[in-house]
Amino acid sequence: MNRKSLLNKFLANECSAEEAKLVFKWLNDDPTLLDDFISEDDWVSYINQENKSKRGGDSLLRIITVFILFGFLFILTNLLSTSTDEPLQTASFIHEIYYNPSAQPKEIVAADHSILTLEPGALIQLGIKPDLDFRRVKLFSGRVSFKVAKDPSKPFIVESGTLMTNCAGNRIHRGL
Question: Is the pTM value of this prediction over 0.85?
Fold first, then answer.
């Protein structure tokens, strides 16, 4: 059997395994062998078919990219709206920091009329909501005395280190 008839048999997918191995060897040695058997129209239709299959994958990739982009934008807008909501909630909570660098006790009257006496070297953060329904003092260093305005419905919380105390209306001393 000559080369031309064996190549035709190979292209028609009618050859044996041994004949296919021989044709593959010929094609590896001389890839231009198929140029005589396959017309230019066949090559153009094959190339167009390959391009169409690639374009189909490209459109799928574009659709997936659009979904990912919208998902990313959705998550980003939710994160930004969450982060902008938090400052509005904390903006209504007034934080004041007091420090007594002098050698004498320093007296502070809070918005709820509670009296805080800072001993020398005391550092605190006072947080009171404007409607006075929540009062909080965080002690960073030193000693502080409190005369808390009595109102059990509005807790007065004192933090010092890992200890947290809730005062309903009395006099307490706290230090680190």
Answer: no
